[in-house]
Design goal:
Elements: E1 4-15, E2 22-33, E3 37-42, H1 48-56, E4 63-68, E5 71-72, H2 78-88, E6 89-92, H3 104-114, H4 120-132, H5 148-160, E7 166-170, H6 178-194, E8 199-202, H7 206-209, E9 214-219, E10 222-228, H8 236-251, H9 254-257
Parallel strand pairs: 3-8, 3-9, 6-7, 7-8
Antiparallel strand pairs: 1-2, 1-4, 4-5, 9-10
Helix pairs in contact: 3-5, 5-6
Length: 258
């Protein structure tokens, strides 16, 4: 039996009051299975980043619940909330969010330092991630000395360093050129397959989305379509074509859907 790692139940987030209410997300429900790589696509303002921020607890939802491994994250307070944000989820941002006056290695080690978890196991984890993500040559460099692709792979290492139960990625390829975007997505896919890292990724890019196993399309705050990679293993290219087809059918082309 497949294990649910994340469950979103009737989640809503409204802004404004009475006659001037904006429904950023409106009664969304879905589940993520442990080890899945799921994409969220939608137009600007569709609610996809709001949804991710509700899961990250940086935004408080208006209604509904979110469960991580059966625990209601809305009830987390104090140390338990800090543990959830710091240990149980990893967050990968579009604009890297690296600290300028720290080296790559120091940026990666930041979660370890904050949670006082330094030890041989985490030292080994750093070395493994650095090697896998091919960033050995930037470990002593500051963010200003790195390319965009290097910065995002350093940020990925930081998000993964404490073995989070789920990684939330918000437009992780948005600031990258096509070569670096493909490299990053191949690395995330490898971690998903080899380490069963669960990833929930917001993206506007059908190329990035084609690395996923399943895609939720969001419009006006609701999930209006779901696309799942066909089994036995459907090629990335074939899945990409189906993504483009759904975008064209449901939105009249990528400009309207994304």
């Amino acid at each position: 039996m497949e294990d649910k790692i994340l469950e979103v139940k009737s989640l809503s987030k409204y802004y404004g009051k009475k006659d001037n209410i904006t429904k950023a997300i409106d009664n969304i429900s879905f589940q993520i299975i442990d080890g899945e790589f799921v994409g969220i696509m939608g137009s600007s303002g569709s609610g996809k980043t709001t949804l991710l921020n509700c899961i990250a607890t940086t935004i408080v939802s208006t209604d509904g619940k979110i469960f991580l491994k059966g625990e209601d994250i809305g009830k987390f307070k104090g140390r338990k909330l800090a543990e959830y944000r710091g240990n149980r989820i990893g967050y990968l941002f579009q604009n890297f969010e690296l600290i300028d006056n720290l080296t790559a290695r120091e940026n990666i080690m930041l979660p370890i330092a904050i949670h006082n978890m330094m030890g041989k196991e985490n030292e080994k984890r750093i070395d493994e991630l650095v090697k896998y993500l091919e960033i050995e040559d930037v470990m002593t460099k500051f963010p200003s000395q790195m390319s965009g692709g290097q910065k995002q792979r350093v940020a990925a290492a930081r998000a993964l360093i404490l073995n989070p139960e789920i990684v939330l990625a918000d437009e992780p390829t948005g600031a990258l050129d096509s070569k670096n975007a493909k490299l990053l997505m191949n690395k995330l896919l490898g971690l998903n397959k080899d380490e069963r890292t669960t990833i929930l990724m917001v993206t506007h890019d059908p190329n990035a989305a084609s690395f996923c196993q399943r895609i939720l399309f969001i419009q006006d705050g609701v999930v209006f379509h779901e696309l799942r990679r066909r089994l036995p293993e459907e090629s990335k290219e074939a899945f990409y074509e189906r993504i483009i087809s759904v975008m064209a059918q449901l939105g009249g082309g990528s400009a309207n859907v994304l």
